[in-house]
Specification:
- It is a single chain.
- With about 280 residues, the protein is α+β, with helices and mostly antiparallel strands.
- It has 3 domains: about 5-100, Uridine Diphospho-n-acetylenolpyruvylglucosamine Reductase, domain 2; about 105-220, 2-Layer Sandwich (Uridine Diphospho-n-acetylenolpyruvylglucosamine Reductase, domain 3), CATH 3.30.465; about 230-283, no CATH class.
- It has 9 helices and 9 strands.
- It has helices at about 5-20, 30-35, 60-70, 125-130, 150-155, 165, 200-205, 240-250, 265-275, and strands at about 25, 50-55, 75-80, 95-100, 105-110, 115, 175-180, 185-190, 215-220.
- The chain has a 5-stranded antiparallel sheet with strand order 5-6-9-7-8. Strands 1-2-4-3 form a 4-stranded mixed sheet.
- Helix 1 (about 5-20) packs antiparallel against helix 3.
- The protein starts with 5 loop residues before the first helix and ends in a 10-residue tail after the last helix.
C-alpha cells in the first residue's frame, strides 16, 4: 500500500479533527510510535508507524471514522493498552490508530443480572466496582491495572490459569455493540441471562483481535463474589510443583480460581522484598 501524499494526509487529519475535535487527534511522532508499540522491545519499522492517533469518545464518532477511512482505503487499527503478549497487535501498514481510552463508561444493572462497559474501561477499575456491589470479575490478567476490557474480549483471555475452573470471558459475555468496517453499528447477543439458541454473532468478534469490527460496548453477566481463601504451597522442585497443581485440578472441587507460580529464585526475591526468609523452593 502506497503512503498518502502530504496533501492527502493533511486533508485526512482535518476530516478526523472535524469528527472528534482537534484535541483528540495526535500527529505527534512520540504518540504515533507509542501507539504502535506492544510489550516486546523490537524496533519499530517506519511502515508500522501510523499517520495519526484518534481518540473518539462515542460510538457514533467511531462510526464516522470508519466510514471515512473506508472511503479513502486507509487501514484502521484499534488500540487499548497494548499489553497483549500474543505479538499480534502491531500495525502492518501506515494507517489510523483508534485509541479507546476515552470510551470508559461502566454501568451495572443488578436487577437484570449483568453489567455494561465500554472497551476502554480498565480491568482493575471494573473489578473494584463490581466488588463494591458484591460481585466478582472472573478474569485476572497480570496487567489488570492497565489492561482494558476491550482487549480482554478481543483476545478472549482470562489470565493466570483460571480457565479450568471459571472459563474464558466468552463464557460470561452476553452481547456486544460493534462498529463494522463500513461504519454500520450493530448489536449482538441478548440482554437476557439465557443465551439465545442458534447463530450468535457475538462469537464472530470474541477473540477476533478487532479484525472484523470495533467493539464499543460489552455486556457481561454478573458473578457473585466467591468466598475468599488464600494459600501458599512450597515444593522441592518445579516438577513436584507441576504434579501438585495437576492433582489439585483433578481432585479438588471446585478448582482454585487463581494460581501464580514462582520458581525458587523469583520466590526468594519476592519473599525478601517482604522481609521474609526464602521459602526454600518454588511456590
Amino acid at each position: 500500500m502506497s503512503r498518502l501524499s502530504e496533501a492527502e494526509l493533511e486533508k485526512m487529519i482535518k476530516v478526523l479533527e472535524g469528527i472528534v475535535s482537534k484535541e483528540y487527534v495526535s500527529t505527534n511522532l512520540f504518540e504515533r510510535i507509542k501507539n504502535t508499540l506492544d510489550v516486546y522491545p523490537y524496533e519499530v519499522q517506519r511502515e508500522q508507524i501510523c499517520y495519526a492517533v484518534v481518540m473518539p469518545g462515542t460510538t457514533q464518532e467511531i462510526s464516522e471514522i470508519m466510514k471515512y477511512a473506508n472511503s479513502i482505503k486507509v487501514p484502521v487499527f484499534i488500540r487499548g493498552s497494548g499489553t497483549h503478549l500474543g505479538g499480534n497487535y502491531r500495525p502492518h501498514a501506515p494507517g489510523i490508530v483508534i485509541n479507546t481510552h476515552r470510551l470508559d463508561k461502566l454501568e451495572v444493572f443488578e436487577d437484570c443480572g449483568y453489567f455494561e462497559c465500554e472497551p476502554g474501561c480498565i480491568v482493575a477499575r471494573v473489578a473494584d466496582k463490581l466488588a463494591e456491589l458484591g460481585y466478582f470479575l472472573p478474569m485476572a490478567p497480570g496487567s489488570r491495572q492497565i489492561a482494558t476490557m476491550g482487549g480482554i474480549v478481543v483476545n478472549n483471555t482470562s489470565g493466570h490459569i483460571v480457565d479450568p475452573s471459571i472459563g474464558k470471558p466468552g463464557d460470561y459475555l452476553l452481547g456486544l455493540e460493534v462498529v463494522l468496517p463500513d461504519g454500520e453499528i450493530i448489536e449482538t447477543g441478548t440482554k437476557g441471562l439465557r443465551r439465545p439458541a442458534g447463530t450468535d454473532l457475538t462469537k464472530l468478534f470474541l477473540g477476533g483481535d478487532g479484525l472484523l469490527g470495533v467493539i464499543t460496548k460489552i455486556r457481561m453477566r454478573l458473578v457473585p463474589q466467591p468466598e475468599r481463601a488464600y494459600g501458599l504451597a512450597v515444593y522441592k522442585d518445579l516438577l513436584s510443583l507441576a504434579r501438585g497443581v495437576q492433582r489439585m485440578y483433578l481432585e479438588r472441587r471446585p478448582a482454585p480460581l487463581f494460581m501464580e507460580f514462582l520458581d525458587d529464585r523469583a520466590a526468594s526475591f519476592g519473599f525478601g522484598l517482604r522481609g521474609l526468609e526464602s521459602p526454600g523452593g518454588p511456590v
